[in-house]
Amino acid sequence: MSLRFRLTLWYSGLLTGALLIFGVIVYLFINWNTYAELRDMVKTESKNLVITGTVMFDTLDLNLDRQSRIEGKNIYVQLINYREGNYRQSTNLFEQNFVIPYPDASQSLEAGFVEVMVELDHKKYRMITYQRPLEINGVLVGLLQVGAIPYNEDQFLIGLRNTLLFSSIIVVLIAFTVGLIIARKALRPIENVINATKQIENGADLSVRIPMPIAKDEIGTLVTTLNMMLSRLEKAYNELDEAYMAQRRFVSDASHELRTPLTTIRGNIDLLDKMWKQTEQQNGAISEPLDTVNFNGTHFELSHEAIIDISAEAKRMSTLVNDLLALARADAGYIMEKEKVDIHNLTEAVVRRAQLLPREAKWEVGDLSELKGVYIHGNEDYLQQLLFVFIENAFKYTPVGDVNFTVMRTEHHIAWIIEDSGIGMNPDQVPHIFDRFYRADVSRGVTVGTGLGLAIAKWILDEHQGSVEVATLEGKGTTFTVWLPIDFS
User: Fold this and answer.
1) In sequence order, which residues have a C-beta less than 8 Å from that of residue 434 and are 6 or more positions away?
2) In the predicted model, is pLDDT for residue 316 greater than 80?
């Protein structure tokens, strides 16, 4: 439920309560005033009437004094003679042919107002009567009833009640509608704040500012505060982004600059290695003793071992630098140049070259015919690197056993399946194996590596909209299933 709707509901609820209290007070006041006036009139008429009694031959005759007159209209008078068991009525009461209900003489009667129901023209009406007991020497002999039917008053109060009810409903509906409009206008600056923040969130553009409202109220203060906060965030973000860009440029430049000297070192070492081997082969043909040229077998052996170590370390550093360069390109948002690649030819070339990799495990290759005529939209060099990463990984962690390579094709994808019977790993470690520099505990100290190969493979897969599935168990080996989408264009 929106804030605008809740505010309108609260406002409408308070207005409804106020109108309800006001309507009840008005209705009760008019009700009391209307019936009080009618009762006063009935009571006054009763007091103005004089009753006379005549006794003849033990017969009591009760009658109204001739000087008594009924001033009010629609006033009904009924005189009950309990002793003779008869009653007298006013002319209007006699003409309309109905009797006002009266109590039995045995009941205790007191002067006062009594409401009774009378039937007139087959309809029942409420009548307000003022009764006055008549006594002679303390003995009840009669009862005077003066009454009026408050039909007009009842109809007036019913109309007043309906008017108050329906007018209150209309006022509340109008107030609710107007309240929604006013609330919407009042909260429009907050909507501007929400829209601006959504735009910043969706577009990641911290230079966007929230429009300032015209009124300098609490919302204006809020907008000013948010704009100042966005300015500080933009400045901090730009500083962090510049620092991050500088760091990425440093890694990229350092990796690039290290490649050349490392290549030179490796070339010179290879040249020295060849020269030492030639010297060793020609040793028997040298006329001078080896001591003369500061050369003997021990020096030769030690120097040659040192050169071999330097060559291995240089090769390892070259691999590390190449991996760092690939990851630096990934971080820098490097966009691969892609084209239509024959996946069958690429796979055959990688499988053939994989046979030359250093390994102890047996290399088994399945049928590759399913890949014939299948093309992938991608970068051929990076796809080869991707497949080499998984094959080298399988060789590295399979000191004894088999490494099997098979392929599979579905309607929209092809899969490279690399299955080994090596050391495997704990399945809980699978979510982390594609993190940089991560290596499973079971492999630390057993195999060499930098922990960057699978991170690079994951980047290449993401660039080609591919995915990988991993099934592994400690001591039972690991199976990587690499999926790539087929290009049908």
Assistant:
1) 454, 455, 457, 458
2) no
471 within 8 A of 409, measured Cβ to Cβ: no
Instruction: Please tell me the predicted confidence (pLDDT) of residue 292.
Output: 42
pLDDT reported for residue 178:
84
Which residues neighbour 298 within 8 Å (Cβ) at sequence distance 6 or greater? none
pLDDT score, position 137: 80
Residue 324: which region, alpha, beta or left (left: phi > 0; alpha: psi -120 to 50)? alpha
- Tally of helices (H runs) and strands (E runs) in the chain: 9, 14
- 101 vs 107: CA distance, rounded Å: 14
What pLDDT does 209 receive? 73
With a cut of 60, say whether residue 196 has pLDDT above it.
yes
Cα atoms in the 13 Å half-sphere on the side-chain side of 180: 7
Q: Does 294 have pLDDT greater than 70?
A: no
Structure tokens that stand for 148 in this block = 């009026």
Six token digits for residue 349: 């070339």
Distance CA 149, CA 98 (A): 13
| Residue 211 pLDDT greater than 80, yes or no | no
Helix (H) or strand (E) holding 140: strand 139-148
Token pair for residue 221? Answer: 């203060």
Where does the pLDDT of residue 445 fall: very low under 50, low under 70, confident under 90, or very high at 90 and above? very low
Average pLDDT, integer, range 74-92: 83
Strand partners for 53: 62
What's the pLDDT at 349? 92
pTM for the whole thing?
0.44
d(CA 146, CA 118): 14
User: Smallest Cα–Cα separation from 145: which of 109, 121, 119?
Assistant: 109
What SS3 class is residue 90?
Answer: coil
d(CA 290, CA 299): 10
Determine contact, residues 223/210, Cβ cutoff 8 Å. yes
Q: Structure tokens of 98?
A: 């109905």
CA distance 358 to 305: 20
Cα–Cα distance between 203 and 195 in angstroms, integer? 12
pLDDT of 367 reads 93
Closest among 211, 208, 213 to 185, alpha carbons compared: 213
Q: H or E element: which one contains 201?
A: helix 188-203
Q: Which two tokens stand for residue 7?
A: 């505010």
Buried/exposed 132-153: b ≥16 CB within 10 Å, e otherwise:
bbbeeeeebbbbbbbbbbbeeb
